[in-house]
Every structure is written in C-alpha cells, then in structure tokens.
C-alpha cells in the first residue's frame, strides 16, 4: 500500500484491460495512450469506465501534434480529465509537423471549428520518414 497515487495504462489496449485495472483497484489514475488504445472513441470509453469508479484520467502522450490535439479534444469532453502528458520539446522538429502552434503558454486551445484544429505539413512529415518508407498519397 502507498499514499503516492499510482497511474497506469499507457501499455494497455482497449477498455477491457483498463477495466481490469479499475476492478482490482490497481490504479488511482488511468493513463491510456490514445494511439495505442485505438483512438479517440476507445479513449473516451476508457474514461467513461474510469469515471464509474471515480478515477481521473491523465492521458499518456508521446505522439505527434495530431495525437496531442486528439487527446486535448477527448480531455475537453470528459468529466474526469486530469492531465494530458506532453513531450514535444524532445524533438526539435515536433512543432514543424503541423502549420499551427499546438501549445501556447502551457495550454492547448480547443478550436471551435470542425476537425482537430491542426493541418499537417506534408513536406516536413516527408523529411522525417523512416528510411525506405514513403508518404501516403493524400489525393
């Protein structure tokens, strides 16, 4: 037993695995990784189950600006959002992947218009592809 809150879930997939953590009272904070669990809808489902146990959600996020914005949208839509992890400054070109600034003064602004609120810069994405890989054809 510990008084330090335990967060887990970044390497769990789907709501069923997170539910087991909650049913066994193994976590104080659920930390799903949005791209790993299957996207925004599955992250929302995990948050809904966590909320039934009065457990907050702090999303694990070491992904792109697109996934960061997706996580911010989910966080804005759930009552038990605690935090959204953020690692952009570990890659000098992270912010160049999209045309907009994602983080401003430590916060992410959720846009009013449809979509995630970011536009991929396909030229920058192409510059950082794994050797031998090709960029999809957006047409």
Characterization of this structure:
The chain is mainly α and 139 residues long. It has one domain (7-127): Alpha-Beta Barrel (TIM Barrel). Helix content is 33%, strand content 8%. The protein has 5 helices and 4 strands. The chain has a two-stranded parallel sheet with strand order 1-2. Strands 3-4 form a two-stranded parallel sheet. Strand 3, helix 4 (65-77) and strand 4 form a beta-alpha-beta unit. The longest helix is centred in the first third of the chain and has 13 residues, at 40-52.
Mean pLDDT: 89
Architecture, CATH level 2? Alpha-Beta Barrel
Query: How would you classify the helix and strand content by structural class?
Result: mainly alpha
Query: What is the number of domains?
Result: 1
Give the strand order of the largest sheet, numbering strands 1, 2, ... along the chain: 1-2
Indicate the low-confidence ranges by residue numbers.
none
Helices and strands, in order, run as EHEHHEHEH
Biggest sheet character: 2 strands, parallel
- Radius of gyration computed on alpha carbons: 16 Å
Gross geometry = elongated
**E-strand count:** 4
Which percent range describes the beta-strand content?
5-15%
What proportion of the residues is helical, as a percent range?
Answer: 25-40%
Q: In CATH's first tier, which class applies? A: Alpha Beta
